[in-house]
Write a structure and sequence with these properties.
This protein has 71 residues and is α+β, with helices and mostly antiparallel strands. It contains 2 helices and 3 strands. The model has no long low-confidence stretch (mean pLDDT 82).
């Protein structure tokens, strides 16, 4: 498994997880220190073969919105 990203809280993680599930990407969630995740910072790990696809999904998810995007 390869580290994809560390989210600062559960809300941000929960907003991204449906994308991985929808695209059938195997993943694991751990706390930043490697223990099972409960709350606080969480690291998401994906299978090596799915890393590039997951990274593209993450970048799309994290895309910054500008005021011109709202028009």
């Amino acid at each position: 498994m390869r580290t994809l990203w560390t989210f600062v809280n559960k809300d941000k993680l929960d907003a991204f997880l449906p994308s991985l599930v929808h695209h059938e990407i195997d993943h694991e969630v751990q706390s930043k220190n490697g223990l099972p995740y409960t709350q606080g910072e969480a690291t998401i790990l994906v299978d090596e073969r799915d890393y590039e696809k997951a990274r593209k999904l993450l970048m799309k998810h994290r895309k910054r919105r500008t005021s011109s995007d709202l028009l």
